[in-house]
Amino acid sequence: MSSLLQTPIDYLKGVGTNRADLLRTELDIHTFQDLLNFFPFRYIDKTKYYKIRELQRNSADVQVIGKITHIKTVEQKRGKRLVADFIDDTGKMELVWFRGHKWIKENLKLNTAYVIYGKVNHYNGTFSMPHPELEPYATHKEEVKIAMQPVYSSTEKLTNKGITQRFMGKMMQQVFIQTGATYEETLAAPLREELKLISKTQALRNIHFPKNSELLAKAQFRLKFEELFYIQLQMLSKNLQRKQRLKGFPFDQVGEVFNDFYENHLPFELTNAQKRVIKEIRNDLGSSAQMNRLLQGDVGSGKTIVALMCVLLAIDNNFQAVLMAPTEILAQQHYQGIKDLVAHLDIKVNLLTGSVKKSDRTLIHEALEDGTLNLLIGTHAVLEDKVQFKNLGLAIIDEQHRFGVAQRSKLWRKNTIPPHILVMTATPIPRTLAMSVYGDLDISVIDELPPGRKAIKTVHRFDSHRLRVFKFIRDEIEKGRQVYVVYPLIQESEVLDYKDLMDGYESIVRDFPQPEYQVSIVHGQMKPADKDYEMQRFVEGKTHIMVATTVIEVGVNVPNASVMIIESAERFGLSQLHQLRGRVGRGAEQSFCILMTGHKLSDDSKTRLETMTRTNDGFEIAEVDLKLRGPGDMMGTQQSGVLNLKIADIVKDNNILKLARSYAYAILKEDPSLSDDSNAIYRKIYKLLGKDKTIWKYIS
After folding, report:
1. Environment class of residue 276 by beta-carbon count within 10 Å: exposed (0-12), middle (13-18) or buried (19+)?
2. What is the per-residue pLDDT across 372-421, written as a single tens digit (0 to 9) for each?
3. Entry pTM
């Protein structure tokens, strides 16, 4: 059976070589199987017939019964159009064709009952339907009607070449005929019974030709579950295999350095969330498997202190640690902060970035190799082959989304057994998505802020309120505070954006003149050294206002900065707005974030601004962001490639995802290698999945 499904699409009756080439290039359909798994994205209810009088101005797809009474050709600027009068007992409308005139004229019969179907336009008080689907009423009555008509994704090229929705439907019918319409089961019987899932054959039939909406819902549920189940099975299995295969260094001691710091030098009481996460990490480090953990925490939730406690555990067990940050400034801040925290402990910490002098580098390399250097903090520079450790036991990566898998694996090679990996991010990712995307990482979440932190007050102001906003800035600077003003920078139009930034900078310098006010500017076209110099001046409090593009998004900590003004806030995504807002509110004072926009706003922009002013919770923001943008964009160029889903939607089918995950987990817990006879079906498909990422090649 399955070999029949692998038949090239050229051999499907009615397709032929030219159409087959189009299906391959436009829709990635190569075989019968690919066609079967090309699922409709919506359905049209064809049980309803409209009267012309009932038509609405909403450009919906409708079906009308009537007669053609007259056909004429109308000249237009370019070429001609064919217009027919179509009437029923309630009124008149027009049918319009811009091409194919000859065929239509020859084949249309006047005063014969037709069923027309298509999108309705309304112009000058008349309804019209361009390029309608037409069928004589007599044939229409006799045909077996599909109540719910599927609609498939298409492209202009396909439509122009005659591969219409109707043709897609015919191909689907043909593939069912040629493959015998019974399909191998891909889920074991106990699982299907427990979840009351319909069979694979029924699901495929009803996804393409649903008998009614109830069967359609069952088919969708079955196929979505199957897709998500196999993705989760794949991920969880990889995770288990890794834990079994990759032996890690057991950190079995909670020793002197950790206890001394915890009891005597901890600058503040840890939150319950921090304690819980440290416990999770300690359990990982104490087991003999290699840790691979993602630590999520909102901006300012205290991830650094958790990371430091893990470093101290490594040192207690005679291992070295490394902390890698995406920018020089951030690495410096980590270095400064951690150096101050461990000042009373007998620990050696050093900083390695691109700008460290060669003579100093040599000393660092030596200290790493002889083991006297306990913790190295740095940028990508730590990945260089020259950087060799005596005994690296823990690698911490800050701001995960800036580093890919390739960089993670470089760190792995810094010891004979891979070190434990802790990945930190302040970009909250909704848990379900994190489960799906970072399937190879265990996840810890710090979901509460340290006590004493005041929530940042966020307001939305229109450009017309600018003078009031400037007055507010002056008042804050008088109190000794500092201000960020951020402009969007969107790749497509760097010239325009740069102009916006420079105009903004000039207007701020005009309103905040020297010597009373000092204004810095930072943007992507500056040399890194100039950028760092300006940032440093701001960090040290020598400038009052920092005008910048989003280069400041990640990590810079200026406790004295209490106001964040985001210009053209409607041009930013939600998670970016939240990241930027997190740059203030680092000190004890009340901080503010002002979102500036013009009056013209789309619905999505309004939702984003409303969410920002309503909540400071990064996870809630991430959920809204996910709903607005969809999962594909969320992850940027993410590593897994698993989100190439055919039918399921991670956001909308969140509950099915959780269900699929729990079943995959239960199966693997009982039988990690899937060697049991009852799991033969899963073992077979899992092996095939290892060869190719496209899940649907194998689960049909």
Report:
1. middle
2. 999 999 988 888 888 999 999 999 998 755 556 667 677 778 888 889 98
3. 0.61
Distances (CA, A) of 560 to 486, 551, 564, 579, 591: 17, 19, 12, 17, 10
Confidence of residue 440 (pLDDT cuts 50, 70, 90): low
**Same domain as 425, residue 286:** yes
Is there a single domain that holds both residue 423 and residue 305? yes
Q: Give the per-residue pLDDT at 628.
A: 77
Across the chain, mean pLDDT equals 84
Query: Are 407 and 533 members of one domain?
Result: no
pLDDT digits over 277-334, tens only? Answer: 999 999 888 887 888 888 888 777 788 899 999 999 999 999 999 999 888 878 888 8
**Cβ neighbourhood burial of 278 (10 Å; 0-12, 13-18, 19+):** buried
Residue 537 lies inside a defined structural domain of this protein: yes
**What is the Cα–Cα distance from 628 to 618, expressed in whole angstroms?**
15
| Pairing verdict, β 482-486 and 545-548 | parallel
Q: Which residues contact 193 (CB under 8 A, 6 or more apart)?
A: none
Cβ(86)–Cβ(51) under 8 Å?
A: no
Query: Is residue 595 a contact partner of residue 459, using CB atoms and an 8 Å limit?
Result: yes
* The total number of residues written for the chain in this structure: 700
What is the C-alpha separation between 646 and 298, in angstroms, rounded?
32
- Note the pLDDT tens digit of each residue in 529-561: 888 888 888 888 899 999 888 766 455 678 888
Query: Is residue 640 a part of any domain in this protein?
Result: no
- How many structural domains does the chain have? 5
* 501 in the same domain as 619: yes
Spatial neighbors of 571 by CB under 8 A, at least 6 apart, are 488, 490
Are residues 509 and 577 part of one domain? yes
CATH number of the domain at 164, please.
Answer: 1.10.150
Host domain of residue 104: 48-144
Residue 289 CA, distance from chain mean position: 29
506 and 387 share a domain?
A: no
Classify residue 663: in a domain, yes or no.
Answer: no
pLDDT of residue 371: 92
Both tokens assigned to 207: 């996804």
Could you give the CA distance from residue 682 to residue 237 in angstroms, rounded to a whole number?
12
**How far apart, in Å, are the Cα atoms of 574 and each of 350, 381, 605?**
36, 31, 9
